[in-house]
Recover the amino acids of this structure.
């Protein structure tokens, strides 16, 4: 029986940044990079960025002017 042992390595880095403005508007940015030793040198690293945004309308003044919306707000608390 013939065989061989090959060692490979994998390394990853991850970063995340969160931002909150007045507890109403939110942003998040993420970045991940992965390196795999078994791939060709020019294809060894992969980068995976991401970004997201959010809004909490229950904190806006117009939300309080609609009784139906206030009922929804009560459900979130």
């Amino acid at each position: 029986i013939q065989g061989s042992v090959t060692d490979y390595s994998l390394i990853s880095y991850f970063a995340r940044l969160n931002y909150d403005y007045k507890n109403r508007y939110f942003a998040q940015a993420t970045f991940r990079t992965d390196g795999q030793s078994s791939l060709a040198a020019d294809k060894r690293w992969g980068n995976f960025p991401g970004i997201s945004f959010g809004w909490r309308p229950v904190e806006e003044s117009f939300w309080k002017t609609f009784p139906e919306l206030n009922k929804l707000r009560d459900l979130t608390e």
Remarks:
- Residues 24 and 59 are 6 Å apart (CA to CA).
- The mean pLDDT is 87.
- The longest strand covers residues 10-21.
